[in-house]
Amino acid sequence: MEVILEKHGVKELKEALIAAALVGKLAFVLLKDGAQAEDAVALLAKMQDPAFKAKVMAGVQGVEMLDDEIQDLKLPELLEIAQVIPELLVILKG
Q: Where are the domains of the chain?
């Protein structure tokens, strides 16, 4: 009997991290003075930004694969994930 080991990449995990940083930063900025009606308007307006929307949607679309990706992590994949840290820092500082 042959055992086939399925290897998962980390594409969806990297996209999910970026999406979480973008949404988290936006929520922090919008809600820092408490929830306001204009926060919902600002959120809807931000979702009209094609670049923002594309990154958030990419992070959400592969969410069902994250468990498999995380369980399959090896050192090279961790190093690949580490490559998104500069982008995450730009998002969170910006």
A: 11-93
pTM: 0.84
Q: Is residue 30 within 8 Å of 40, Cβ to Cβ?
A: no
Query: Any idea what the Cα angle at residue 54 is, between residues 42 and 86, rounded to 5°?
Result: 90
What single-letter amino acid sits at 14? K
Q: Half-sphere exposure of residue 13, counting CA atoms within 13 Å on the CB side? A: 20
By the 8 A CB rule, do 91 and 24 touch?
Answer: no
pLDDT digit string (tens) for the chain, length 94 residues: 443 444 568 999 999 999 999 999 999 999 999 999 999 999 999 999 999 999 999 999 989 999 988 998 999 999 999 999 999 999 999 8
